[in-house]
């Protein structure tokens, strides 16, 4: 059986949980606190980041974007016309651009700050950066998320899904990151109706159910977090 | 004819120049100063980063990792057994892990600091961050590069090339980033003989010649920069 080393509020891990479930892969989930830099985990992924997928045969696949490419290559064709990566090279460029946008830029500007400051710091020892959240980082994230929300609204209004007329890994990457921000109550949904409608569509997919059931001890999600009709 | 928007000392641009040349693609090079956030360039790549490839038919391919995947998909097969991406899914994982390592982690810890502080800041207007370099950032990069040099030495000694027994995009990504650091004289080559031997091998490829001829006005390269027998 496959294993996924993840953290419940790690947006990159959530992306792979979504991609995996859409493909019928239900790995055993093992929680990893990447800030502990556990020796055995560092051997699986020298970069020290979640998620890492271990295949049933022991093959190690580290890193969200890399796992998504790997899953498409090994299991994507079986999805037929529900495949999460388009066949056309130019369309694949747009999907990859947006996956990179959310896994990279959005994480650096929004979800990384919020998850680190509001969640991870509660569990870190003081000498590893634990303690109260840095409010400047949280404020920056709350400002930045508004621009990204508009961009999602613009893309979904002009294209139906973020990268084109079908749902792709780009939608799952975006929704995974947004779901973490939404857990923390930091998405100003009222500012963009199109973005909200897009998120409601992704959120209603069966693959999303497990994410909506996640709970972090001592930190309840926002009131509408698991509400499909928010 | 294809166009590549790039900057001569942008490590991500250099990576694509290497990959392109290995594939026989010789795009027209157009220098872009990404920090100017030029409107027409932002339309090509909303992330605002170099490189961006424009195909002869006008198709836009933004971002180093994405361009490399695209070039492999559209032109890779023609290389036969010199193809830069392996056919096996697990081997592709390792190549992508290392491309991500250098384009992401190495850039964040080493090449990004050095190029920004020593080069870009000289050309930026003061209100966009121009001015004298931040010596703390440079010192951090010089410390970090030593760990990466050891990692390159370890990989090349145990595998011949970084990701396995053949040269792949992983070697070109690593060498592109290292070449920028080497231009600035900040690679402590004497600390790892294996890494040095690996770099000498990549550097001697014909694709590397154009990079070794690059000169930034007012900033000469290190004495051994273009020396194949350094």
From TrEMBL, chains A, B:
Residue runs in coiled coils: none
GO biological process: glutathione metabolic process
Keywords assigned by UniProt, alphabetized: Transferase
InterPro entries attached to this UniProt entry: Glutathione-S-Trfase_C-like, Glutathione-S-Trfase_C_sf, Glutathione_S-Trfase, Glutathione_S-Trfase_N, GST_C, Thioredoxin-like_sf
Keyword Transmembrane helix appears in the UniProt entry: no
Domain GST C-terminal, chain residue ranges per copy: 88-230
TM region positions: none
Domain of life of the organism encoding this protein: Bacteria
A Pfam short name: GST_C
GO molecular function, a single term: glutathione transferase activity
Domain GST N-terminal: 1-79
Quaternary data: Homodimer.
Protein's UniProt name: Glutathione S-transferase family protein
Species: Salinarimonas soli
